Amino acid sequence: MSSPGFTKRQKERARQDKQAEKERRKKERAAEKASKGPLEPGVDPDIAGIVPGPQPQQETELEE
To answer: Whole-model pTM?
Structure first.
């Protein structure tokens, strides 16, 4: 059976690894955000590039 100290060290190491991974992902997201550059003023990034009005019909192939 493992000693309580060993188990505690394992849990602490796992916690540290998880925190390090979260920090790495956070820095990665920040770098991606910075590389995209600023958007035009007054442009909502959620709807940028959407064309209003009727959308073109998709071509569908009929099975013969």
So the answer is: 0.52
The 3 state secondary structure assigned to 2-53 is CCHHHHHHHHHHHHHHHHHHHHHHHHHHHHHHHHHCCCCCCCCCCCCCCCCC
Residue length of the chain:
64
Chain CA centroid to CA 19, Å: 17
Which amino acid is located at 43 in the chain? Answer: V
How far is the C-alpha of 54 from the C-alpha of 2, rounded, in Å? 67
Distance CA 34, CA 1 (A): 50
Predicted confidence (pLDDT) per residue in 11-42, tens digit = 999 999 999 999 999 999 999 888 876 667 77
